[in-house]
Fold this sequence. Notes:
single chain; mainly alpha; Rhopdopsin 7-helix transmembrane proteins; disordered N terminus; transducer; transmembrane helix
Amino acid sequence: MTNLFSQFELCFPQLNSSCRKLKRPHSDTLLINSVLSFTSLLTATLNLLVIISISHFKQLHTSTNLLLLSLAVSDFFVGFIMFFQIFFINGCWLFGDIMCLLYVVLDYLITSVSIVTMVLISIDRYLAICDPLHYPTKVTPKRVRICVSLCWICSLFFTTALMNENLKRPGRYNSCAGECILVFNFIEQFADFILTFIIPITFITVLYLRVFVVAVSQARAMRSHITAVTLQRSERVTAKKSEMKAARTLGVVVVVFLICLCPYFFFTLSGQDTLLHAPSAIFIMCLFYLNSCLNPIIYAFFYPWFRKSVKLIVTLQIMKPGSCETKIL
């Protein structure tokens, strides 16, 4: 019996009710820790650059950038929360039941805000491209602030409603000390699947496809009005490049969103997400978090102002008096 007991380690050796640590080769553990730490740091850093850029430079205080700011804030905290996934690698949660519940609540809240903000961005781009004449009056900074506030408030309400049973008694589903388990019934999982996956991806896909169709039709209309042969050929090349760039950008947005979110929601809908420290769950959740790392790349790195502002931030030019008035656009 002594030899059998020595084959594993306990999360809390002083407790007989302690969970067992998952045994992995040291090289595998080191690799997983390194990847998670790097992704967490990269996610936080990229989104922090977006936050500083939009907050500091007054020229960037536009309606669209307010949405990007909200997205960056939520994704920044996703990077912070992702760091705690490292503590699930060995199968032990060392911070108690309250912190476990707080971790999962913040996880659901922040990722929900990130997804809803992506929907708001798609609506903003739809109105800007498909209804440009009325866009300045329909989309104002005040209305955007209201929408962003409602986004955070509704996400908090949805998260607390989803966690209702788990909030009543933290740790009620743990079978041993060192576990972090939350259980959701089928209705809760289905509601989460519909409200945070089906509806958002439908909105994003439909609106962006509409934007692409309008952009292509506008480009063709411009070509049809060109009479000079030389100019017509030049315009045709330019329009062709614009169409390809729009298709590529929209394709990246939708495909990345699907790749990162589909596995997570299908996994949770199957009811297998109760063990947050299981290897498959760790991989799927990290893939889910990866979307927050890619968001600033997709939505911000495509903008020249972001590259310029990053240079000013890295070189500490923003520390100079009056730097907030710098022309970025």
